[in-house]
Design goal:
41% helix; two-stranded parallel ribbon; alpha/beta; globular
């Protein structure tokens, strides 16, 4: 697979972000010709390799920035987006501008530049709070937040551009990605880095709800592998959607207990009222990803958690 991507000109939007940085590193190691488009509103230069990357500072909301970034590229990995369900409740218009408008701009730029394939970072939030588990791609989407709506709209745009304009597209619905370098400081930080940060600082972690809600946590290396497989696949894509996860779930309470075991801490969490837009349970059916991409998770939850905790402990010791 790595040989397939050697010397291939690729664009990674949002490449300086948490997932983007890991993907860019893997693409550099695969000897692809890598260009990154990022406005650095959430990403950081420290997430990017020191060499082998052309960095364009720009905004997916600007057509000219997207056109410049896509020029000469064969594959586009579109990761640039605003995350966080809670923040999207507060700023729905901004989320629509960046996540929907930005995706449309990137697709238009890809079409105009003759890009062969776009791999879109979609979200499991599209499923909403359906009680049926596991979540299968054939389910009717029931988004519960502006964030979920915007990510689902991106999938639909990808499908339309594939059918109408011939730009191959495939949407990867990520389930609760975690791993090293995920920002623990944001007000809207994802639960894994937020918990680790609290425990390392001897603070009680905050759990919204009773903690028995479950998630299918997916270590970032699995997501990177899925993107590489989607880019290198010899089959043609026309807007397919696939789940990217591990196919196993764990409650937040159980996850916190495993963290405490790894760190040797015993700090009781603080429970607050559940947040609007959050789903109760999540578990992915990953058979379609296996059939279409040859995907299977390489790092399951417990091993990924150990690696993630070790990375944050190492970072804390550097201070």
């Amino acid at each position: 697979m790595n040989e397939t991507l050697a010397k291939v000109p690729v664009l990674v939007t949002g490449g300086a972000g948490f997932i983007g940085g890991h993907l860019v590193q893997a693409l550099v190691e695969a000897r692809a010709r890598v260009r990154v488009l990022d406005d650095f509103s959430a990403g950081a230069e420290g997430n990017l390799p020191a060499n082998g990357v052309e960095v364009l500072r720009g905004d997916v909301r600007k057509v000219s920035d997207c056109a410049k970034a896509a020029a000469g590229c064969t594959v586009v990995f579109h990761l640039a987006a605003l995350g966080s369900v809670p923040r999207s409740m507060e700023e729905p218009e901004l989320y629509n501008e960046v996540n929907v408008g930005g995706t449309l701009n990137v697709l238009e730029a890809a079409r105009a530049a003759g890009v062969r394939r776009m791999v879109y970072s979609a979200s499991s939030s599209a499923y909403g709070d359906t009680q049926v588990l596991p979540k299968v791609e054939t389910m009717t989407p029931m988004p519960m937040s502006p964030y979920a709506i915007t990510k689902l709209a991106g999938e639909y745009y990808c499908r339309v551009f594939a059918k109408v304009h011939g730009v191959e597209t495939v949407s990867l619905r990520y389930f609760n990605v975690f791993g090293p370098r995920q920002n623990p400081r944001s007000q809207y930080a994802a639960v894994v880095p937020a918990f680790i940060s609290a425990l390392l600082e001897k603070r009680p972690p905050t759990i919204y709800g009773d903690g028995e809600q479950t998630r299918d946590f997916c270590f970032v290396a699995n997501v990177v592998k899925a993107n590489l497989l989607a880019a290198a696949a010899t089959r043609k894509f026309s807007g397919e959607v696939v789940n990217i996860a591990c196919g196993e779930r764990i409650s937040l309470n159980a996850m916190l207990a495993k963290m405490q075991e790894i760190l040797g801490t015993r700090i009781a969490p603080v429970y607050l009222v559940a947040r609007a837009g959050d789903v109760r349970d999540s578990l992915a059916d990953i058979r379609a990803a296996g059939e279409l991409l040859g995907y299977e998770p390489e790092v399951l939850f417990e091993e990924g958690l150990k690696q993630t905790v070790a990375a944050y402990v190492s970072k804390a010791n550097e201070r």
